[in-house]
Request: fold
Amino acid sequence: MEKNRKLIIAGNWKMNKTVAEAVDLVQGLKRELGTVKEVDIVVCPPFTALNDVSKQILDSNIWLGSQNMSEHNSGAFTGEIAAGMLKEFSVRYVILGHSERRQHQRETDDLISRKLRAAHGASLKAIVCVGETIGEREAGETETVVERQLRGSLSGVKAGEMAETIIAYEPVWAIGTGKNATAAQAQEVHAFIRKTVGELFNASVAKRVRIQYGGSVKPANARELMSRPDVDGALVGGASLEIRSFSDIIKNSI
Ligand code: 13P
Reply:
């Protein structure tokens, strides 16, 4: 089915890759993917590799993303990185509210909404992550949880900013487990997310907003997942750490 939204496939490298390894990976991706025009390709290295990766992808079809940022613009926030600092490395995207940060750094929807507004203030495009745990799914609470996360993390955002914001549906039980959501399960939640975005903003925003699926995306399941009408891309963890698997996910999705 022909979608009117361009696919966006992002690699979340998490806490992996030295600078040298990051440069090797991105050079390989440029070689493999240099002619791809159908997909917005994004890599999200750790902060320490942003500078070198940024230089590598100048004049390429690969965009740079960061895995997190502060809700503040500057000041006494030891260890934090501000949106303006990311812009110095030509960062275009920022992942916000990943489940690992919700879990280990206790990030709340309220904090994520403040980070989102800071990202918009700096003209960064945010990838806002939502998703239920296995316990919540088994209790039949998937939609309740995802709706609460959307309402909380998107609060205070204007419709005009929202169309450029990306939502990533990442069921926590599918992350790093090798057990991806089926295409039908993903489609069901993606359609619910689009409907909720329509209620929170308007129909035109809902139609434009891109919704990525994340959780054990591999070359073998990418095509099937991307074939669904409301699946507009992928946020890839483990399989984005190798040239071959990340390139194949993108090639198989076209
Ligand atoms: P995996 O692809 O390793 O399951 O990770 C998904 C993820 O968390 C991407 O943000």
Notes: The CA atoms of residues 185 and 192 lie 11 Å apart.
